Amino acid sequence: MMTIMDYLVWRGDVDFHGAPFNEIDNLILSQIVYLHMEGIVPPPGGGGLPLYAVWQAYLKARPDCRSESADYLERDSAKLMEAMAGSRRFGGCLLSAFDHEVNRESEIQFAALTVTLDDGSTYIAYSGTDTSMVGWKENFNMSFLEEIPSQERALRYLRDRLGEVRGPLYVGGHSKGGNLAVYAAMHLEAAEQERLTLIFNNDGPGFTEKMISRRGYQAIRPKLRTFLPQSSIVGLLMTHDEDYRVVHSSSIGPFQHDAFTWEVCGPAFVYREELSRSSLVLDKALKVWLDEIDDDRRRQFVDALFSIVDKAEIEDTDILNHLTWAKFTELIKAADSLSQEDKDVLTGTVRKLIHVYLHSDQVVEQLEKQIRRLPVGKFKKLQMSKKDTKKGNE
What we know:
394 residues
């Protein structure tokens, strides 16, 4: 199995003049924006530094970034940047305009980076959700807000960069970063959208039906490149109208969201024909569940859920991953302190999701049984119909 780390060994000695930018380069650049580069990469308007110099400064500022004491996002991304810094392909790339904000009050977690390649093209990378609870709360807010703060910030960032960038321009991100890339691109003016070469969404959430019906989204649709692992969860949230490719991951379930588990072969991903059954069942369940819950109830559910972690003073998901008995007790006390109305919303909403999930599982199972009973000659036709239904988010 080859991953993006193996790709750097294979292609690292070839610059972008010798081998044009491809989808694997996109995934690699979408990962380094997870690093804490404030104070190292200049902010917008402050010039830039070659990647190898950024890595040297980063290692000096955060010497433990590759150790087990670092969170997994920083640890994996640091190892990736180290390999990039030693390569001909990425070492001389210019990193600039690093923009970063995590603000609990305004509920925003945002980071963006501009990467200028040696062939004169540019990749603008938006960060996905980090390990902060602020970032996760902002994700949940997508379920009931027309626009979240990171999306507005992403649009402003892209517009500012358009005035400075020359040559081919790629925009992309991983997870929420993919959503930000698409959002920013769809809200540009028509003349601005023509400046974009491709927009990459690497397992990022979609949008509401209302938003994808707008002219701006439909205008950039031919330029969208969406990639989902076979058991995608995050990438199937909300609605996707664009075509997508299913990438084979070496991991299982939700861990396939990790870009370092995606398999590559040369300058392209290793593809599968369709999403896994478990992913389709969950996708159907989540869509039905959201359709049955209005925006006010979604807001109340999210606020109640995150008020528990706030009261327990949990600011980072690493605390949940290494939950102590004392912290677990605080969570129980915080949940118990909720009003009866909030408790009812939490328990009722979760029960509804479980019910919908089990029903969705039964629906998919019945369809599979019907397919197995068909004569061989009709199987391919129905399988294709089923596949098209899946691709259209059922």
